[in-house]
From TrEMBL, chains A, B:
Keywords: DNA-binding, Transcription, Transcription regulation. InterPro entries: HTH_LacI, LacI/GalR-like_sensor, Lambda_DNA-bd_dom_sf, Peripla_BP_I. The keyword DNA-binding applies. PROSITE patterns: HTH_LACI_1 (PS00356), HTH_LACI_2 (PS50932). This is LacI family DNA-binding transcriptional regulator. Gene3D superfamilies: 3.40.50.2300, lambda repressor-like DNA-binding domains. One of its GO terms (molecular function) is DNA binding. The keyword rRNA-binding does not apply. Residues 9-63 form the HTH lacI-type domain.
Length: 339, 339
DNA sequence: ATGAAAGCGCTAACAT
DNA sequence: ATGTTAGCGCTTTCAT
């Protein structure tokens, strides 16, 4: 049942079949305007007849450009990175590039190995979510002149492009929404302060609260950002707030559940906003109002900025693009009429 | 701050630096045994000094083999596929191949477009999770002689390799476990019968129940396999079973929660087994006993079978590899002592 | 054990 | 408007 591996047609075969030279065929394919319409027609027929498919590898050898870009990330299994991958893959596809998936599995040596692989392949560039904040390892790529875009990690713009989501804004809109919904005693259920995202989201929350004199903001820190810890926190709460901002959706789901166990109703008694728009946010019993991060856009933009750098080269200006998060309204909060 | 894009060293540069011919350099790199140890040493020094990195694209042009394999799947964002991707990426890396991520986004034309791209790139093969059961579209690859391995979808072994998980066995071990834990009145909380996986898992459940004369098996079908529907089912249940097998973890999580609302205790009153070992299974309040599918192994094996076909060619025998699911014991069931 | 040379499939000057 | 031709960087006979 195996097909006979037919030797693929080459450009010469097409040229012969169309009765023209190889360069004409090449022109038809790459700069159609330079060639007579009728000739072009003949060539295209021959292409179709022979099912000719150009070999970009050979072309790249000649032109010096390959057509693959690397995507280096810690773990595709993490839905955040998976979404980046999806966005990046889409953008790459649209622009005719292929995306090489480099899953470093949280291992620095493997990440390094992938960098080497990308150098070998003469990848035109790479989108990378680096394992460590220390950018030294990236030099392997840099010194080879391979453009790169950092994702989910800002970088001084003079050093290169980067894309990330504004977590301060995210915290702010989350709490602003709670305020808009009438909450005044707001609790931030946060992860460890040392996590930059957590610190930023809290800072945003503070900014929002400052705009309302009568509003108060409290904070409780969960050891881990899981459903179980969210539940635990709900159980231990002495004074119930009327609004809770959980810095991720697992905590939020757990909190909702823990409150339900105590007979506290969401959103009637406590309104809850989560963060991340993970699957769980919409699956949970009381669906979660949450902050959505445009993660796919992150991936898409990263690739596009990369290609701009690749194609524009000289005129390209590095950019640290920061995306705005958005609010997804669901059942765990109750917008006041007219808001 | 941009590095000066240094023109990469070529094999000629190395040859010159080492005072040998290019073919010797090539031999040192590819068939070291053919070259004098001392010469090899000199060459290797030159390679290091110039930071020479071979260009597999150029090599491939000569040898006819590329070093990239395609991974075509409907959506990396789906954790099942993401896990396949992770396994595949690891295997590809270990074997020195690069993995091209082709996320078809559930769109047939895009899937087709990726097939064309893989043909262009002369990919050595592809691992594909096809969008439709209809394999016609795969012919684009087949007729070009590009070996492929189907993932998560069995295929008659004479047509090619495939890897999948045995859902019947999965259903069987899930229910067998409930029986072992003392449950006798077992309810299957299933998804639509038309979904092959659901049908298979139920069939496995039946097999298990048949081994115990006194055991009974019921079934209820959820419209969607979500937490919300799981909860709904728990609320509507008239006669409580003493064991429940939910054919995915969302249903299981919802069921647990719905039962809790009614004051029914898991696992004391009802023991619950889920399926899939999604993140949610371990995050939920009562952690779920569930059936784990070795999804990463699926991806890994797919790539390895592919490379066997690529490298062995003649002696390669197609194989429909079926993986066994396993049970993950957590809090929602209570193994009897000694079991 | 080593080297010379012929391509792999394509593009891009340069000619015509 | 079309054709001729010289490589891109590498592997691989075939000589030496």
């Amino acid at each position: 049942m195996d097909a006979i591996p037919v030797r693929p047609a080459r450009i010469q075969d097409v040229a012969a079949a169309a009765g023209v030279s190889v360069s004409t065929v090449s022109n038809v394919l790459n700069r159609p305007e330079r060639v007579n319409a009728r000739t072009a027609e003949r060539v295209r027929d021959a292409v179709a007849a022979l099912d000719y498919v150009p070999h970009p590898g050979a072309a790249g050898l000649r032109t010096g450009h390959s057509s693959s870009i690397g995507l280096v990330l810690p773990d595709v299994t993490n839905s955040f990175y998976a979404r980046i991958a999806r966005g990046a893959a889409g953008a790459a596809y649209d622009h005719g590039y292929s995306l090489v998936l480099c899953d470093s599995g949280d291992e620095p040596e493997r990440e390094q190995g992938y960098f080497t692989m990308l150098v070998e392949q003469r990848a035109v560039g790479a989108v990378v979510v680096p394992l460590s904040a220390d950018p030294t390892r990236l030099n392997r790529l840099r010194e080879r002149g391979i453009p790169l875009v950092l994702a989910d990690r800002a970088m001084p713009a003079q050093d290169g492009c980067s894309v990330s989501v504004d977590d301060i804004a995210g915290g702010r809109i989350a709490v602003q929404h709670l305020l808009d919904c009438g909450a005044r005693d707001i609790l931030v259920v946060n992860g460890e302060r040392s996590i930059r995202q957590c610190a930023d989201r809290y800072q945003g929350a503070r900014q929002a609260v400052r705009t309302r004199r009568e509003a108060r903001l409290g904070q409780v820190v969960a050891e881990e950002m899981t459903v179980a810890y969210g539940m635990e926190i709900a159980r231990r709460l002495d004074d119930l707030p009327d609004g809770a901002f959980c810095t991720n959706d697992f905590l939020a789901a757990g909190l909702c559940r823990g409150l339900a166990e105590r007979g506290v109703k969401v959103p009637e008694d406590v309104q809850v906003v989560g963060y991340g728009d993970l699957d769980i946010a919409s699956f949970v019993g009381t669906t979660l109002t949450t902050v959505r991060q445009p993660v796919e856009d992150l991936g898409r933009a990263a690739v596009e900025m990369l290609l701009d750098e690749v194609e524009a080269r000289a005129e390209h200006a590095h950019e640290a693009r920061v995306f705005a998060p958005g609010l997804v309204l669901r059942d765990s909060t109750r917008s006041l009429a007219g808001v």
